[in-house]
């Protein structure tokens, strides 16, 4: 079956993407790894010894760089509805974290401690209908914010991928209610035509 012009254009762009090639060379599972590397260099979301919750973690591009950064004294608890191959230093919980069993498993993995950071690179399965996809994306980041409010320690950090569009401004206001400082980042590895940005919350109010 012949590919559509749109899918062929995406495939050509993906294959020729310098960050895709760099990820393959560096052994990263996803080009998204470079987005978090850049954000953390600027905003210090985590450091050695940090406890980090990674939502929407598959295939593991973010957990893969967080785990060595937090080291043996830190912990990474990752969750996704999709399977993820094991990563040293990462506790992976497969399931929808908004459902009781996966949510309780995340809390159990935290072992009574609070998280220093919650990070989310979640995105919905796209339908191709712009408004539908935007509402689905905003719903996901609202759930990520709820999780952050439940597990972060005072002063903790939050980082989530958000798509600009309907509901975006209201979401930014919600994040500001819970954090002392909110920054919008557009990492170099984000495609310029993409509406995605990363919202960083610093200093969780608790």
From TrEMBL:
<dbReference type="InterPro" id="IPR015507">
    <property type="entry name" value="rRNA-MeTfrase_E"/>
</dbReference>
<keyword id="KW-0698">rRNA processing</keyword>
<protein>
    <recommendedName>
        <fullName>Ribosomal RNA large subunit methyltransferase E</fullName>
        <ecNumber>2.1.1.166</ecNumber>
    </recommendedName>
</protein>
<feature type="active site" description="Proton acceptor">
    <location>
        <position position="161"/>
    </location>
</feature>
<feature type="binding site">
    <location>
        <position position="121"/>
    </location>
    <ligand>
        <name>S-adenosyl-L-methionine</name>
    </ligand>
</feature>
<dbReference type="GO" id="GO:0008168">
    <property type="term" value="F:methyltransferase activity"/>
</dbReference>
<feature type="binding site">
    <location>
        <position position="60"/>
    </location>
    <ligand>
        <name>S-adenosyl-L-methionine</name>
    </ligand>
</feature>
<feature type="binding site">
    <location>
        <position position="62"/>
    </location>
    <ligand>
        <name>S-adenosyl-L-methionine</name>
    </ligand>
</feature>
<dbReference type="InterPro" id="IPR002877">
    <property type="entry name" value="RNA_MeTrfase_FtsJ_dom"/>
</dbReference>
<dbReference type="GO" id="GO:0032259">
    <property type="term" value="P:methylation"/>
</dbReference>
<keyword id="KW-0963">Cytoplasm</keyword>
<dbReference type="InterPro" id="IPR029063">
    <property type="entry name" value="SAM-dependent_MTases_sf"/>
</dbReference>
<comment type="similarity">
    <text>Belongs to the class I-like SAM-binding methyltransferase superfamily. RNA methyltransferase RlmE family.</text>
</comment>
<dbReference type="InterPro" id="IPR050082">
    <property type="entry name" value="RNA_methyltr_RlmE"/>
</dbReference>
<feature type="binding site">
    <location>
        <position position="96"/>
    </location>
    <ligand>
        <name>S-adenosyl-L-methionine</name>
    </ligand>
</feature>
<keyword id="KW-0808">Transferase</keyword>
<feature type="domain" description="Ribosomal RNA methyltransferase FtsJ">
    <location>
        <begin position="28"/>
        <end position="204"/>
    </location>
</feature>
<keyword id="KW-0949">S-adenosyl-L-methionine</keyword>
<dbReference type="Pfam" id="PF01728">
    <property type="entry name" value="FtsJ"/>
</dbReference>
<feature type="binding site">
    <location>
        <position position="80"/>
    </location>
    <ligand>
        <name>S-adenosyl-L-methionine</name>
    </ligand>
</feature>
<comment type="function">
    <text>Specifically methylates the uridine in position 2552 of 23S rRNA at the 2'-O position of the ribose in the fully assembled 50S ribosomal subunit.</text>
</comment>
<keyword id="KW-0489">Methyltransferase</keyword>
């Amino acid at each position: 079956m012949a590919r559509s012009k749109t899918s062929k254009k995406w495939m050509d762009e993906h294959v020729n993407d310098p960050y895709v090639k760099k990820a393959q060379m560096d052994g990263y599972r996803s080009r998204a790894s470079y987005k978090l590397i850049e954000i953390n260099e600027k905003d210090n979301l985590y450091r050695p010894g940090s406890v980090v919750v990674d939502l929407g973690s598959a295939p593991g591009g973010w957990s893969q760089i967080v785990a060595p950064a937090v080291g043996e004294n830190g912990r990474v608890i990752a969750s996704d509805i999709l399977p993820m191959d094991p990563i040293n230093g990462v506790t992976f919980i497969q399931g929808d974290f908004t459902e009781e069993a996966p949510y309780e498993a995340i809390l159990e993995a935290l072992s009574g401690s609070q998280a220093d950071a919650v990070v989310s690179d979640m995105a919905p399965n796209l339908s191709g209908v712009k408004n539908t996809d935007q509402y689905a994306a905003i719903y996901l980041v609202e759930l990520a914010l709820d999780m952050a409010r439940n597990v972060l320690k005072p002063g903790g950090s939050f980082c989530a991928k958000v798509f600009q569009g309907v509901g975006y401004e209201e979401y930014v206001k919600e994040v500001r209610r819970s954090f002392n400082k909110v920054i919008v980042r557009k990492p170099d590895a984000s495609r310029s035509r993409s509406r995605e940005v990363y919202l960083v919350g610093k200093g969780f109010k608790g």
